[in-house]
Amino acid sequence: MTELTPKSSQLGERLFSLDFFRGFTMFLLVAEATGIYNLLTSPELEGSLIYTIGTQFHHHPWHGLRFWDLIQPFFMFIVGVAMPYSFANRTKRGQTYAQIRTHTIKRSLILLFLGWYLYCISHGKIEFYFQNVLAQLSVTYLLAFLVMNKPARTQIIFSLILIAITEAIYRFFPVEGFNHPFVANENFGTWLDLQYGGADLSGHWVSFNAIPTTAHTIWGVLAGQLLLSKRTNVQKLKILIIAGVIGLVAGSVLDPLTPIIKRICTSSFILVSGGWTFLALAFSFWLIDIMKQRNWSLFFAIVGMNPLFIYLFAHVGGGGFVENVIQPFTNLLFSWTGDVASGILTGLVVLFLLWYIVYWMYKRKIFIRI
Prior knowledge:
By secondary structure, this protein is an all-alpha fold. The protein has a domain at about 70-295. The chain has helices spanning about 15-35, 35-40, 50-55, 70-90, 95-125, 135-145, 150-170, 190-195, 215-230, 235-255, 265-290, 300-305, 305-335, 340-365. The model is unreliable at about 1-10 (pLDDT under 50).
């Protein structure tokens, strides 16, 4: 199977809802680099509504689900949605399947390197960690590509097989001390990372998450193929909503048997978060592409047009550099509000300036891609 061009009248049209969804997600990731979320959960604010809201911008400690646990699934899913559009355009420009496959492999390797190197930069030494979003995406992107030309049923079955294999490995892993599937640091995922010295014993994240979360990228591909199809917008919206509800119900029903745990991407978590990704795309599609509410959405969309650049820039010292430049002025202006409020206001200024960088790039048609 070597055909990557959908037979659709919509080929070449821009999916504005995807720009918005991607930009909104990236905006939240960039905001994390400013330290705002940590300030929202400062001890001084404990018990307040602000503190309660702030906890939703931190991952759940273990069993449970918070809003921030959905950001990586959103990102994985969004990449999947974009894949049919991207590869169709490459085919339209005359690229062969072999050329696109080579590009995909190269991109996966670059993402893996960047994900790994982010850890090295943040820790100041060479360490082999592969738990962050870029390293995980390098795997999900490649696996989703390998099946994206198969029928939708085959893609769905493949995604469910990956989830089932993960469930089975965790439940039946025989090594003593690591045969407690849903106990932090006592499961297969931690054991695997210990074998190459990349275990995250404090955060409990595991690199094997890339396998089950591949389902998010595959489901994104299916959503992209749906949106490129000749179905009416109402039909597309209904399918997205139905898929989202099925994921939410299936994951919630499974929770008593397999707890919803983001840090090791349990099957119930994959299903519930997958449901939310479909519903988030459905809402974006309804609001932006059906209701045509596009003018204000440009604020977020331009962030999504340079996602890799702004993510790396914000998390590899760019955010800190901007903060160091403007902090003397914000301290002068906001110090009277107190340390926490002043820090939040400073973070918002930094966030705006980071946004303005991608706005400047957008106006000059500068887009960094790999």
